[in-house]
């Protein structure tokens, strides 16, 4: 049995061990390494309780035995191996199930409330405990997307987009539990499938609206006072349905479309800055300001990571392949640089770590039907929405 | 020595110069030799005369010509008639000597020769010559006598007898008849006259002499001296020896041991004792010069050094160019007759017990046909060889063997070895032809019975389906959500979305009704404008009788989306829109009337029947996407009509038994036909009225075919539950035929009641295909 010289280190001061090389059997796997660390910590601190660790060798998660991993990665076994260890991210468990009468088309969570849009033409506000607080009814057709705009104390602004080609801006007072429709935004010639709000603007109204798979145009609206508002700007250029929009920052808008492109727009002028061309239809995109990457879910079952800053366009940084159906939703973790979730039509939600691109960290298979939307909250709370109307809360 | 000379003289090649020198010498000769000289002189003269052209000389040499002496003798007798008897005597005597010596009685010959007819006088010159020869022969005899007599071995060069002249008579070599009239015949060396004998012998004397004189046979007449000479024994001996071809000298040993002066044996001592020359020690300058020239030439490359000879023998293939069809070639193809099987244990007279058949086996054997039997005979056991009966099947077996030998064709089959892969046409790999649908992505569940027909909206966001459960459902494509369910009054046979994006209408046919629906999906403006278009109709002033009744829906039906109802006289099987979205064609299959196809105009609510004649049971119809053509598929043919000129343009022979479905390429020049006999026919309308390609990929009847609007793809769905996607690239270049490559078999539908896929349609923008099946589902493959 060959031995490897290893050195363990971690960022977490709580679990740090002495910086000395250890001789570890080459065939040892994560469990054995974890035991070693736990032994060391126990020797250092008598009150230490058993903790599961995950190990990274040169930025890649260890999933097989140490020797196999190093062979696959082409790391020399002669030198001292630097192994980083982190506390294992525990498997998500469904905590709460929120029942809708119909399919849920979208979900958006913040620290206190969860907003969902449904095919029963309503949107709902839920508490984190899974209690329906408010039903937003006003659309004449299916609610396709929802978004929080701003929360000032007890008063919140929220947006709902619908198949009836309108976007409604609502003001909701959580204390009095009163809802008031403030504006109706018109201008789309098809169903509005996706909306995004600019998170950086503190001023009241700044929303954009995305257009559905009906017209090769996309429109952005900034609402003015008044009941009915018209678009401030129309971004047109996509040949087919726009499936997803988001703000990269206050000046840049990113949109994904069925015409196999992701476009970056200048919010001031409305012109295309960059086009990323893929080979398949994009269903959803997500942007992480932490790692400055775009994640896209497409119909060929892959989650792809893009660098939106790259000028030469269509460079795929990483492909995450495990789903067996269309990837309908992707979302970066708001507080973790490497983690994202993806939902797919194969009824699975997968939690990925970009340091382990071969296999996802966890599969969440509590869903019985197609997953249409996923979201995170800061407090490590994740919501899934599925078509039959279950929300799982971790 | 002398004999040698004689022989050389016989050849008569003595030169005149030699003669002269000889004559000079003659003067100095002794008396002994004088006797011979005239003979030789005469001989030489004769040689001088004849010189060039005496051909008879060789023939009539003394010894070889003896047998011809008959002819000689009668010549001489002519001479004798002229008066020269002596010469005759000469010849005769010599003849007689010779013949007697041979022991042949030739005594009667001379008279016989006498009787010979005289030759004309013209011949005198040749006769003379012959006489000379006789003389020569005699002279030789004399010479021989002389030689024999003078056996001394003195100075052999003292008198050279080779050119001695006859010195007995000095007149020389002249014709002796010149002396006929004289008493003398010449002069001797002393100048005294040689007188003739006093009396010439006449015939009688001759005869008597012959009879009486015992020495007559050895008596020779000398013409020059006109005297008879009696040959001594030695002389006769000499004559005999010469006649036998022996040397004249008895003592001459012709086989003396030869001394080999230079022998092949290496001797110890040199043959000559001469010291070697100095030049043999000095290198030759000339040779050096030659060698240096050669060396220079070799260096300059003017002379190529000799190639070493190849030691390996060179062979060539004698049969390399042999014609395989020639007889020898056919011999190679000879297949020997198979050998007869050798007898085994079964044939033994005393086979081991395991080869003997049991009773049941014997029964089975007897019941079998003779051809099915494993063995043609029953193995039998005999106690001894003597007890074995005659082999009853002998003739039969021989006969069969003969049949085998001459009836069985034994020749090698000329089989062409073709690699099967070479026969496959070179097609691009499917992975190079992407994109095309590969996997099933979504299943649209909701119908409760088989889904007959599906159609996608022009934008690709919605899908409409019609089912046997009497409902029409509208689906959101990307989620699989059923947005609306509309009940209609019967099993839906066909649904078609209006291809015009500015109009939101779906044509649905069930039973004998065609229903135009407004699904109310998509752009509100479009939906409302469509409703407006329908309500804005103003009926014409004169009401024409129409085959169908148009009715506007109202009340709850209107709220459900029903807009117009077209009630047909018969059951409608198919509806199809024109590309512009205003015209609509419906099919009412009926074998017995001409009212099978109706074309409706929605905006004017007008209906017309374009055909007056019934050309067969119409299966499906289609509009040309660009030009005013109309395709009508009956059971076996597809007819193309020009709607403006109102005439038949083309009739396509499908070679199918029953067409089930048809689709037109968006370019309009190609067409595919699916048929119930599992075939898909691709027609290139520019090429021919026969199918360009027949594809037989499906195991069961085809139900639906479709072209993609933009991608070079077409799909076919069949009762075997599979959808086959083919790459069908049509080129703008008229010279290039369409490229058809099957790329994918998509499976997913379950076979229900022996029905699989009922309809296929492509997404208008993406390379996705929808299929509807008898298992009440619609599936999306991407």
TrEMBL record, chain A:
Gene of this entry: WDR12
Name of the protein: Ribosome biogenesis protein WDR12
Family, similarity comment: Belongs to the WD repeat WDR12/YTM1 family.
Keyword presence, rRNA processing: yes
Gene Ontology cellular-component terms listed: nucleoplasm; PeBoW complex; preribosome, large subunit precursor
Lineage per the UniProt record: Eukaryota, Metazoa, Chordata, Craniata, Vertebrata
Places the protein is found: Nucleus, Nucleolus; Nucleus, Nucleoplasm
Annotated GO biological process: maturation of 5.8S rRNA from tricistronic rRNA transcript (SSU-rRNA, 5.8S rRNA, LSU-rRNA); maturation of LSU-rRNA from tricistronic rRNA transcript (SSU-rRNA, 5.8S rRNA, LSU-rRNA)
Function per UniProt: Component of the PeBoW complex, which is required for maturation of 28S and 5.8S ribosomal RNAs and formation of the 60S ribosome.
Repeat (WD) residue spans along the chain: 97-136, 136-180, 235-275, 285-307, 320-356
Region described as Disordered: spans on this chain: 196-226
Keywords, alphabetical: Nucleus, Repeat, Ribosome biogenesis, rRNA processing, WD repeat
CDD domains documented for this protein: WD40 (cd00200)
GO molecular function per UniProt: ribonucleoprotein complex binding
Domain annotation NLE: ranges: 5-70
Keyword Nucleus: yes
Organism for this UniProt entry: Oncorhynchus mykiss (Rainbow trout)
Oligomer status and interactors: Component of the PeBoW complex, composed of BOP1, PES1 and WDR12. Within the PeBoW complex BOP1 interacts directly with PES1 and WDR12. The PeBoW complex also associates with the 66S pre-ribosome.
Major localization listed first in the record, in broad terms: nucleus
